[in-house]
Amino acid sequence: MLETYKKQHAKAIIQYIVVDFNGQILESDAILFGNSKEENIVDVSPFFETVIHLLESQDKEYFFNCIHLNLNNKSITADIALKTFNKEKYPLITITDLTSHYKHYQTTAQVRNESVINSEILELKNSYLREKEEFKNTFIANFSHELRDPITGIITFSDILKNTQLDDQQKNYLQILKSSSSFLKKMIDDILDISKIEVGKLQLVLKPFDIRELLKDINASYAIRAKEKGLEYFTSIDEKLPLIVGGDAMRLRQVLTNLLDNAIKFTEKGSVTFNVSLNQVRAQKASVHFEIIDTGIGIAPEKLESIFENFTQVNNPLSFKGSGLGLAIVKYLVELTRSKISVESEVDKGSTFSTNINFRVDSNQKLPTKEEVKIKTIKSDKKYNILLVEDSEITQLSVLKILARKGQFFLDIVSNADEVIPRIENSEFDLVLMDIKLQDQWGDEVAKKIRQLPEREHKRVPIIALTAKVFSEDLKKYKKAGINDVVKKPFDETTLINTISKYLK
Ligand code: ADP
Q1: Which residues contact 22 (CB under 8 A, 6 or more apart)?
Q2: HSE (CB half, 13 Å, CA atoms) of 489?
Q3: Beta bridge partners of 81
Q4: CA of 107 to the centre of ligand 1 (A)
Q5: 261 with 255: CB under 8 angstroms?
């Protein structure tokens, strides 16, 4: 019975072929292709061309897997084996039809390969995106860095011009120059902030500060700005606010001024209101509510979410200038304090932006004493020798003009890092102003060399860095290199003079 079944169901898939040493078929069954006695194996399929030269070998076995053959006009996938014997016995070729096996195998292999390929593509895409992102951030950081020298130039010379004899028209032009350069400076600061945010490098610096003083200061300037635009300015600051709180005063000011700038910018008539109230004080934390209300153009409900994204401007960008970065930065900064910013708005009625921010309150918190913040006035009877190491001509000229106006400084300038050490060794400087990104070297490396000089009075000279590279790791590096202080570019006259004065005896 088994034999009958076998006969019915066993599918013959192997063909045996005996050939002579030239490939002539001597004997074969007709399982896969017709009985081709007296035909050469090469005529069965061109594949066998590769086998012919092996027929002369002795006692060898060769296997060829997954070979596509066209036999009797039918395409099959087969494994082929060749067995050679000694000179007296002819070679044997077997062809095993494994078409269905290979088909299944190929499909699974293909599926597997596809998933491997897909994950490789994904990995490639990710690394491409990462590289692109990194390139973009470095590009932005470098680009804004390069813009700082020319802006410093514009700011400094506008300041200098202000103090010369000008007629009314010229004063007007100067005002435009000043407001354009401050706008440009703000845009660059925003772009740098965004690039810092994207690489996770923007962090809060928490210190005790006088919150009421800060709010008073903000109110003073925005009351004027609102009035200039013909808007009313209302404000209410809670009497119960603690006097000193711990937080990042600079970033708080940035959040509030961004919101107030927008309120004024997007309001043509009516008012801008700035309210600050104390929610509660609990567990050494004061929760403070800030609210900025305007009666301006408002924001459509479907656009409310997107205004916090980078580069988003939902109103006609042609009518309002701006980069669309302000609110993205505000949102990020507020979230750094583990809080949220919310907005309610109605088109043509106005908008209300509000947030609750926690500040540290601790009766032991003290503001830096007046002694520490007081700026040392420079002794009027002495002239100081300053060495400026700077390769940008605009900055050289700006520093020169600022110092010259004081009439208390002799300024020596070198633009090449290699000239610094010989210059210091041959003269007596009271202070060195050091650009960080010099053409051929980093300023902090030059500072290290100064600190290693043999002469005490040379190596002890105060060094102030002039730079836009002020990430916290940069500052640590400067300190380690022996740099005493940093003046951030673009700088203005007051900052430069005040910082210098701290180090002059
Ligand atoms: P920018 O003001 O530089 O365009 P922001 O990120 O500060 O960028 O604001 C993004 C967009 O949100 C603005 O362009 C404006 O369309 C909308 N917006 C922000 N504040 C207000 C407001 N007070 N009233 C109306 N629209 C606003």
Answers
A1: 40, 52, 55
A2: 29
A3: 63, 94
A4: 55
A5: no
Q: Which atom of ligand 1 is nearest the CA belonging to 314? A: 16
In the predicted model, is pLDDT for residue 294 greater than 90? yes
pTM of the model: 0.58
User: Atom 8, ligand 1: which residue's CA is nearest?
Assistant: 324
Which residue owns the Cα nearest ligand 1 atom 12? 307
Q: Is the beta carbon of 191 within 6 A of some atom in ligand 1?
A: no
Q: Which two tokens stand for residue 287?
A: 């929760």
Q: How far is the CA of 473 from the centre of ligand 1 (A)?
A: 33
Cα of 266 from ligand 1 centre, angstroms: 7
Mutate to test the pocket of ligand 1, among 310, 321, 327 (most ligand atoms within 8 A of CB): 327
Ligand 1 mutation target, pool 191, 231, 261, 262, most atoms within 8 A of CB: 262
Helix (H, G, I), strand (E, B) or coil at 500: helix
CB 467 within 8 A of CB 498: no
DSSP state of 449: H
Q: In this predicted model, which residue has the larger pLDDT, 111 or 266? A: 266
- Residue 373 reports pLDDT greater than 50: no
Task: List pLDDT tens digits, range 64-121.
Answer: 888 888 887 888 888 999 999 988 899 999 999 888 888 877 777 777 777 777 777 7
From ligand 1's centre to the CA of 227, what distance in Å?
20
Ligand 1 contacts CB of residue 263 (under 6 A): yes
Highest average pLDDT, of 65-74, 120-129, 155-164, 267-276, comes from 267-276
What is the 333 CA–ligand 1 centroid distance (Å)?
Answer: 16
pLDDT band at 7 (very low <50, low <70, confident <90, very high): low
Q: Whose CA is nearest to atom 3 of ligand 1?
A: 322
Question: From residue 449, how far is each of 210, 412, 418, 464, 481 by CA, in Å?
Answer: 41, 19, 11, 15, 9
Q: Is the shortest distance between the CB of 296 and ligand 1 below 6 Å? A: yes
Residue with tokens 């590009």: 139
Is 108 in a helix, a strand, or coil?
A: helix
DSSP 73: T
- Band (pLDDT 50/70/90 cuts) for residue 371 is very low
CA angle centred on 359, ends 358 and 364, rounded to 5°: 150
Ligand 1 atom nearest to CA at 327: 6
Residue written as token pair 């491997």: 116
- Partners of 387 in beta bridges: 412, 432
Write out the H or E segment, with its range, that includes residue 195: helix 168-198
Torsion sign over Cα 205, 211, 215, 216: negative
